[in-house]
Predict the structure.
Amino acid sequence: MNTVEFCSPPTLEELIGALNEHMAELGASGVLNDGNDTALLAILANIGKSVSNDRPNAIVLLEAFIHQVSGFINGGILTVEEGQPLIDAAQAVIDQLNG
C-alpha cells in the first residue's frame, strides 16, 4: 500500500481525499470487511460535512476515527502499516483545523 506524499502542506480537502482513497484501497483489498469499512467511511463523510461549518465537531469526529482505527490495529483487523497512515492523515487534519 502506498503512502500519500504531498509536495507542500496539503489542504484539508486533500487530506480528507487521501483518507478516503486509503480507505477505498483497504476495502478493495479485503483488509476491512464491509461493516468495518462502512463504519470508517461514515465517520469520514460526516467529517467532510463538518469541516466547513462546524470545526469543533470535525475534530471530535477525527478523534473518533483515530480511536476506531487504533482499535482495529489493536484487534488485529489492521496492521500498523495499514492503519498508521490513516491515523497520521487524520491527525494532520486535526492539526490544520487547530492551526
